[in-house]
């Protein structure tokens, strides 16, 4: 019997990507395939807006359908969203506000920040059908595998969004343990998810929600006037010593709740949506050399390196601008930097730094 010549096996997707990159850049391929289907790409996570819902007077929830490059997330995590605004590509970090869904869609709740280009675009101009760039999920403030300890969630402003994902995840499990959410806002119009939270509290006897309004009088049993304080927490969250606490909101709110509780609860974990005050005594200028291009820049000490590089016309990759997402992380070959969160000087060579929360304390060589 004569031999039969079989056709070669089809190339696997990974092999096709490697072959494609040999001849053309991924960006070139993405540009042309986007004319066929806007969310097609060689390797970039992209998502189409498939729904939008107003959550408060200044916040919207966007429902996104990601492409196959999206790798998933855990409730409590964040991601970077990117869009073109006024001819420039802008990326910022936002929280995922729902649990992972069977249909693969994502819910991201965005609060409008006055003067914020991307939040203004997403809240007022983005429409169903628009395509956004996605970063990979990040953040370590997630639920433990076992929910043995009673939980206390403390939210202010946009800090409700990752905690709402946690509440929804626990509700999907039947509220396996004691859970209290205290949600602070200036007025009722600033609150998101109120009706759903009240429905969940009515449906689950071990879930309690309380709204603290700093600029409005209380008018319901689950409301109080003023800031969150020790007396309020003692009243709505008994047994604090056994509680595992998650807090999320502006930097001042997180610092306040940490001071109230960190020494008297089972554990305290927090994320701030605004960076802490940066007070450094460094003055004068230093030289920063970019190893990739060989370019040397003069930048001021004490200024976040990301801000300093942007002031020189550079556009390093970045996301949260708070030291959480690691998008702006790069290597340092030599020199001393200062951690603007702690004030500590870091002189170790060949170390990593985050451009948004490190400044130059001496001449530097960095991997950009």
UniProtKB/TrEMBL annotation:
FAD-binding FR-type domain segment(s): 42-144
2Fe-2S ferredoxin-type domain residues: 284-368
Cofactor(s) needed by this chain: [2Fe-2S] cluster
PROSITE patterns tied to this protein: 2FE2S_FER_2, FAD_FR
Organism of provenance: Lysobacter daejeonensis GH1-9
A molecular function (GO) term: oxidoreductase activity
Protein name: Oxidoreductase
InterPro entries, sorted: 2Fe-2S_ferredoxin-like_sf, 2Fe-2S_ferredoxin-type, Beta-grasp_dom_sf, Cbr1-like_FAD-bd_dom, FAD-bd_FR_type, Flavoprot_Pyr_Nucl_cyt_Rdtase, FNR_nucleotide-bd, MRET
Pfam families: FAD_binding_6 (PF00970), Fer2 (PF00111), NAD_binding_1 (PF00175)
